[in-house]
Amino acid sequence: MRVGMFCDMYTPHLSGVTNHIRLYKRQLERLGHEVWVFTFGNRQYADDEPNVVRSPAIPWGKTGWQAGVRLAEQARDLIPHLDVAHAHHPFASARLALRYAGPAGIPVVFTNHTRYDLYSDAYVRFLPRAVRMRFLQRYLRDLAEEVDAMIAPSQGIASWLREFGVTDDVTVIPNAIDTRAFASPAHPVSRTDVGFAEDAIVLCYLGRLGPEKNLSLLMDAFVEAATVNPRICLLLIGDGPERSMATERAWAYGVSDRVHFAGRTRYECVPDLLAASDVFVSASVSEVHPLVVLEAMAAGLPAIGVRSPGVGDIVEHGVTGYLTAEDADELSLRMLDIARDRAALSRMSEAARLYAQRYDIGLMADRLVALYERLPASAPAPTPA
Fold this sequence. Notes:
Blueprint: E1 2-6, H1 16-30, E2 34-40, E3 52-55, E4 57-59, E5 66-68, H2 73-78, E6 84-87, H3 92-100, E7 108-111, H4 116-123, H5 129-146, E8 149-152, H6 155-163, E9 170-172, H7 179-183, E10 201-206, H8 215-228, E11 232-237, H9 243-252, E12 259-263, H10 270-274, E13 279-281, H11 291-298, E14 303-306, H12 311-314, E15 321-324, H13 328-340, H14 342-356, H15 361-374
Parallel strand pairs: 1-2, 1-6, 2-3, 6-7, 7-8, 8-9, 10-11, 10-13, 11-12, 13-14, 14-15
Antiparallel strand pairs: 4-5
């Protein structure tokens, strides 16, 4: 099967969507399929994998998003020979997949990776929210009607899409991870390697340090917990505009020696850093089925997060971690609970590791291929007389 993955941005940009596509691409290739990635920008970047086709784009500030200008000739030549076109961003990529694959009779699939309502709150606040929501509701509803299949990475996101006006069937295929890489890191890092004491309880956040991730709430909760328990430390893996806020808050409350910023980290090195941690923490409510939580669980880290679609679909309260309200005091209390109860931490660690195995890439790729194989070829558009 020849599969085209359409995305607005790809490597060297680091994101959950990028990692998702790379992981599925490699697994599908192992299964004997031919996979192409059609993306925009960074045309001088030397890819370390085959079949990546980059088209011209204009960078959108420092967000990493690339505004596609047009498809490169190579892309236009390859698309008619695909068996499936799979879009991972709803605007430029999904529109181009429909424009070029649909008329050739190639089925188009779209995966909704993001809570676009919450992202618009973070990045498009200059427009009235009512206007943004009306646009998104109509756009996603129309897109669902045009594509041959829409995928949601969790039941929570499938429910959100229905509440958002998508009445077409939505197939749930959870995000996947390479469980082996996280369970057995190649070069594990110790807590002393990142400047923490040997007996520290290390909380770890992994992801973009952006406003959509609710970092200010996470820092407030950490400061509260660290003030009570001097063994609690925080490892932040990733970078973004909220790093300066987090740095300033740690300094202001006198806990900067217990916060370590690992910065932008190559995906292959993430399992090594997770080995230095005890618990994964997040205050984000904008996730759909967060890979970072599954990856942390595969490394044996129970998770503490805010009860919301995505995180709430993964974390089982009291079993693989804790779910809280979007409240710094409650989040802080759960950090303190898990830090002082080593038996519960050990029990949750093993439960988290076992739970993550359900989402191994081998299992999820088989489900995705089965979906592809069920799709009937679309009828090609008639050729004008």
